[in-house]
Amino acid sequence: MEVELVEESLCDKMDEIIHINLRGTRFSTVRSTLSRLPVAITEDKRGTYDVQNKEYFFNRNPRIFHEILDYCETGRLHLPENVCSQSSREELSFWGVPQDCIQQCCWKAFYKVDDEMDVLDKLLDYLPLDTDFTRAQSGVQSSGCGNFQGKLWRFIQGWSSSLAAKVWKVVIVVTVLVSLLVFLLESEIDFRDVFPLTTVLINTTGTDQDSTTVVPKTITGHRPKAWLALTNAVTNLILTLELALRIVSCPKKKHFFVSFLNISEILACIGVWIALYLDNFTVTFDDTGKRKPSYIFVFLLCLFRVFRIFRFFVNNSGMRILMLSLRSSSRELCLLFVSFVSFAVMFATVMFVCEYNVKTFRNIFVAIWWAFITMTTVGYGDYAPSTPLGFFFGGVCAVFGIMLIALPVAVTSSNFNDFFNYNRYRSRHHDHVKKSRDRRCAGPLPGVQEGIRSNSVTKTLDDQAVISAWNCGDLKPSKTRVIPFDTKCQ
Known about the structure:
Structural class: alpha+beta
Strand content: 5-15%
Largest sheet: 4 strands, mixed
Number of strands: 6
Mean pLDDT: 76
Shape: flat
Number of domains: 3
CATH class of the largest domain: Mainly Alpha
Radius of gyration: 38 Å
Order of helices and strands: HEEHEEHHHHHHEEHHHHHHHHH
Strand order of the largest sheet: 2-1-4-3
């Protein structure tokens, strides 16, 4: 009889209704449901029991507590899509609910934030909000270099630092464009002066096959026209001066000389000066009218001028986001390359067998060339199948090429879209924070000025300066005393 009474009392206790208050939102459930929760709510010291309202109060977010109670009833955890998964993680950790119980239908919404945080972390590492010249300026000051070096680096790298810096940036951009234009014009024979080198005698056979005639032939050379060489010298002089200023003012010389663009700029400047000297003061052709091997090496140095165009994109956020998208899609691009080569070899082998009797392809290597051209939908037309079976596999090869290229392109474009949008959101948030701080720095907060006692402030600063510095967070404890506030200050 006593055992039955104990069991009845336990059943009544398990059916007892428990009220839980989460920041004003009240939940009611039975004790048996809460008993399945890893955290004992009735014994949790993180909450308080309100005797008057007969409820347990917890200062927690109530948005997913419905789902937690459902988990206690069914053992399956479903999460709402309109709640940040990071907030859901915190609540699940507080109530002791394991994430392993999340059902498959909620995986996408719950784990999507992990991908988004990875995107944001990569964006912060690769494209910080601070500009290069600002970081370099801080590097100059921290390394103990002179103030002139920091100002010079800011002037050269920070085009928005002053009006003179903007003018200098425009001059450099125009100079680089003119330098590239000169490089292109030098390859056209109409913009080069032809001059004789030597005259040689050539034996020619007459019409009767017995007589020979000696004909003199003039071997000629060529060099850029005078005005083109002068323009090349002026542009290279400006770029050499700009390069020298960057080397002198750069706070981290080691990082400067390991940059590919800086190395290419140094080689281009050296190559142009040597080429100008050789073209105007020496003969760079041999007796047969061909360039000397030494000049070919100098010409290769001059080719580094084409990399100057990339200087415009170094600090461009759009170009950096594009490079970051390609880097993040490296796995998909590698998969594309491996799959492309595998299918190209397979289709090349099949086409070589199909066209073996008509000798359309001399060997499998030629067939591989045809497969690459077909799968990329270029279609030069130098090689083409001529048998019905070859036509069929040629069409299949083209379709496979389109599908292989389309899949990684979609992933890369998706990554670019994510990085671009997050960078836009981050810039907008940064501008909002900056404007809010500027408004705080514009003047003292209401009710603060009368709360600061003038005798508590360092004598070197007036009250208004201290208030502005306090609001901006620039007031250093080493220069001021503690600022007491009046008890009436709100």
